[in-house]
Amino acid sequence: MWMDHRAKVQAERINKAGHEALRFTGGEISLEMEPPKLLWLKENLFEACWQKAGTFMDLADFMTWRATGSQIRSLCTVVCKWMFQANDTGLREWNSSFYESIGLKELLEDQQQKIGNLFQLPGDPCGDGLSHGAAEELGLRPGLPVGTGIIDAYAGGIGMLGADVSGLKLPCETRPLTSRLALICGTSTCHMSLSKKETFVPGVWGPYYSCMVPGLWGNEGGESCTGKLIDHIIHTHPAVDLLTEQSKKRGCDMYTWLDDQLMTMAREKHLSSPAMLTRDLHVCPYFYGNRSPLADPTLKGMICGLRLSSSLDDLALLYLATLQALAHGTHLIVQQMVKSGYDISTLFACGGLCKSDLFLQTHADVTGLPIVLPKESESVLVGAAILGAKASGRFDLESAMSRMCGVGKVVWPDEQQRVYYIKKHEVFLKLVDHQREYKCIMEEL
């Protein structure tokens, strides 16, 4: 489970050793990746798990194994999460010096049977198709093509980024696919980009070759705690019971109620937008550490501007400040990508958080970029279907993307909020700097 952060010590040890392979993870390996997790299992569950395990694999690879009986691994899973080496000159191999240096050389034994030795691009036909056993369980025909899998967030990228935006006057309309950034917004948020060349972005994972689209390099930024943070802020607030009661009375969910209440509060204060309600309230959203671009799992959440009040209006303001903080986190990732050579002009977003118009508008306003919502909201499933289409042999990946992706609506940034959010971003950066300063002070003890 990516959100399991038990391997903190192991990740710190790997990073301290400074193997050259870490440049493909933004300079530091994340405790959410597989090598530190494997090392944790070896050091903490040696007899109960490590010695007994026959093979280790990502969920995407487990699912294709379950469907076909084939242990072919997806190039996406092993390159993005396992430090597997792949590039545009044909290199495809495990980084033996890395695994030996961190104390996992036994995984390289027996032709790497425990971690895989057969690899394919996402969507390539896996094994002999659907096995007889799986076909019987699913009520399908044996031998049906099964596409080699992909990490769920990357499936979301495949299910959105190929959409035809002709006539929408979006900045990406006259630019290549590499000017689009996919946001997969759920418990966490993943920021998926594509490049024609190997692009290293400090604090951002990658570059990973052919991890999403064959022949293109990918980078992955992310916020470890987004939807989870919003829920935490709401459900730990003293007014949550009253919020539940009020939203039930109105026949809506609590997020819609909060969005509506913020609009009411803005009108009462004669503000053109709810955004300015948080002029004196600021949040640092790193309650579960920072995945990128700071790559610091030790960072904590911060709230500046609390009052001696616990009303529904206070909850609404804190909710808004949290949405803004998450948008500033995305802006920080985009800035780092652009600084490293990317030309990000348009965001494409999917996931549960995209049901909130306020979440989307805030992201557009803070980043200054338009956001495209897909025609089909479940873009991860669309991406999986595209891989199935590729496995059928009737489409290559990019043609399937262009035919199966679609545009739902576009959220444009409100330029009137630009100056306000520039100042809010300055405060956002100060919160992080101050937290690190406080940590240094306390470490003097």
UniProtKB/TrEMBL annotation:
This is Carbohydrate kinase FGGY C-terminal domain-containing protein. Residues 181-391 form the Carbohydrate kinase FGGY C-terminal domain. Pfam families: FGGY_C. NCBIfam families: 5C_CHO_kinase. The lineage of its organism: Eukaryota, Metazoa, Echinodermata, Eleutherozoa, Echinozoa. Signal peptide: none annotated. Belongs to the FGGY kinase family. GO terms for biological process: carbohydrate metabolic process. Keywords: Kinase, Transferase. Coiled coil: none annotated. One of its GO terms (molecular function) is kinase activity. SUPFAM superfamilies: Actin-like ATPase domain (SSF53067).
